[in-house]
Structures are given as C-alpha cells and as structure tokens.
Design a protein that fits this description.
By secondary structure, the chain is α/β, with parallel strands linked by helices. The protein folds into two domains: 180 residues, 3-Layer(aba) Sandwich (Rossmann fold); 39 residues, no CATH class. It is 42% helix and 21% strand. Strands 3-2-1-4-5-7-6 form a seven-stranded mixed β-sheet, with helices on both faces. Strand 4, helix 5 and strand 5 form a beta-alpha-beta unit. The longest helix has 21 residues. It is globular, with a radius of gyration of 18 Å. The termini are far apart. The structure holds S-adenosylmethionine. The site of S-adenosylmethionine (SAM) has 18 residues, from strand 2. S-adenosylmethionine binds next to strand 2. One of its GO terms (molecular function) is methyltransferase activity. InterPro entries: SAM-dependent_MTases_sf. Pfam families: CMAS.
Length: 247
C-alpha cells in the first residue's frame, strides 16, 4: 500500500464543493433544476460531485424509477473522493464517476450540471453550445460561470483572461445560443470569502502541521500568492453566476 501523501490529501479537504456556494444557495439551485424521478443527471467537470450526488438524491433513488447520475472529470483524486462519497451514502449503484474529457462526453441526460468547468469546452460560448447536444429536449442545465462584477483591472484580466463577460453579456450569450434562462443568481461576498478560504485551508493546515517538509516553502508561496491575488485583485471584481437554462 502507498503511504498517504498528506499534502495531496489536504488539497481540497476543507471544501464542500469547488465553487463559491452556500448550503442554502445550493438547495435553491437544486429546486430550480427540478430533478424528476427516474431522470438522468450528468455533471461535466464534476470534481468530487457533491452537487451531483445531491441532485440524484433530489430526484429520488428509491422506488421503481430511480434517478441516476454520471460525473465526468479529468482529476483522478477528485473522482476517487466522489466514489467514496457515493459509497458512504449508499449511492454507488446510482452514480458513476468517469475519468474523461468533458467535451468528449456525448450521452445526453435530462439534467446537466456544468459548474466552473466551461474552460473544459474552450470557454463560455463553446460550453453553452456543447451543452445543447448533451441535454435532452425539455431538459435543464445548471451552468455556473464567472463574470465581471465590476470592470476588471489589467491584473484581473491577466489572471482570468479577456473573454470573461459581464452578467448581462453572459445572459445574452446564453439567450442568443437558444437557451431560455429559467433562473439567475450569483455568489455573494460571504460565499466567495468562504470559497477562497476553504480552497486554501487544507494546505494551510498541512503547512502548520508539516512546516519542515521540503515542499513547504513552495506551498507557502503558492497560498500566499493566491490570497494576495484574491484580496488585492479579484475580490468583488470576479463574480460567479448560476444560471438554470432550458430549451
Ligand atoms: C472549479 S472546478 C469545479 C468542480 C465542480 N463542478 C464543483 O462545482 O465542485 C472545475 C473542474 O473541472 C475539471 N476539469 C478541468 N478540465 C477538464 C476537462 N477537460 N474535462 C473534464 N473536467 C475538467 C477540474 O478537474 C475540476 O474538477
């Protein structure tokens, strides 16, 4: 058996999901996604699939028409965490975690989640187009995507690219690509602060526990840079919008 790499294990350890999202907001999004019994749920760029598991449970897993889910991601460790979560909740017969490119998945589903993963398709517009072919007619997509909450500085644009839309631009883009926008909400400051803090927290704790590890200096520098960038450059500037889209 391989010895545990505590650094790797700590990476996302304090995150519930890998997006700025409170429990209450997640519940609202799942209600708006309206997962029906017996439906198929697909999560492209699922990470460890916490929302996917909840979406499947929301659809119902007992009875004659159980809801089923598939999560697709390229991160082995995240997929393994997803499988452990599914097993712990007795959902492993209902949810599969598949290693693969999101853009290469073609089997359609009734409900599709794509949160913070549009880059896997080449960007916002490409993702909005690609999602049309994996959602069944009458289906819905929960699309989580970044937007500029305030005009970006040059540094913010350098980090996130020049393609990030503002919120009206994001919604208009979705509409022009044939989607009906059934729900819009955005992550608030507390959700962002919690996201950024928990993104750092696993490795902050590792640093405090293993300060003499040869990798500590590099990890400390990475975490310090990220926190500096967040509070100095994109806090309150980059937003995250959650759209429920139908067609
Ligand atoms: C910001 S995280 C969001 C994860 C998840 N949707 C959530 O909300 O917790 C983006 C995810 O996209 C995955 N990803 C990146 N490129 C990908 C690709 N080409 N195909 C599939 N997944 C990809 C990453 O591994 C990561 O898990």
């Amino acid at each position: 058996m391989q010895p545990t790499d505590h650094l790797a294990a700590s990476r996302y350890a304090r995150m519930r999901w890998n997006t700025p999202l409170s429990e209450e907001h997640a519940s609202l999004l799942l209600r708006r996604l309206d997962v029906r019994p017996g439906s198929r749920v697909l999560d492209l760029g699922c990470g460890w699939g916490e929302l996917l598991l909840r979406a499947v449970v929301a659809g119902g897993v007992s009875g004659p028409v159980a809801t089923r889910g598939v999560g697709v991601d390229t991160d082995d460790a995240a997929l393994a965490r997803g499988r452990r979560l599914a097993e712990g909740r007795a959902l492993n017969r209902h949810v599969a975690f598949v290693m693969g490119e999101a853009a290469a998945w073609h089997e359609p589903a009734d409900r599709v989640l794509c949160i913070g993963s549009a880059h896997a398709f080449g960007g916002t517009g490409a993702a909005l187009d690609a999602l049309t072919s994996v959602v069944r007619p009458g289906g819905r997509v929960l699309f989580g995507e970044g937007y500029w909450e305030r005009p970006p500085t040059a540094e913010a644009e350098q980090i996130f690219g020049a393609e990030v839309p503002d919120l009206p631009g994001l919604i208009e883009d979705a509409r022009q690509r044939g989607w009906r926008v059934l729900h819009v909400s955005t992550a608030d400051q507390r959700e962002w602060d919690d996201f950024e803090s928990t993104w750092l927290a696993g490795r902050q704790e590792w640093l405090l526990t293993y300060p003499e590890d040869p990798r500590a200096a590099e990890v400390r520098a990475e975490l310090d840079d990220r926190l500096r960038q967040y509070v100095g450059t994109y806090r309150g500037v980059l937003g995250l919008a959650y759209l429920v889209l139908g067609r």
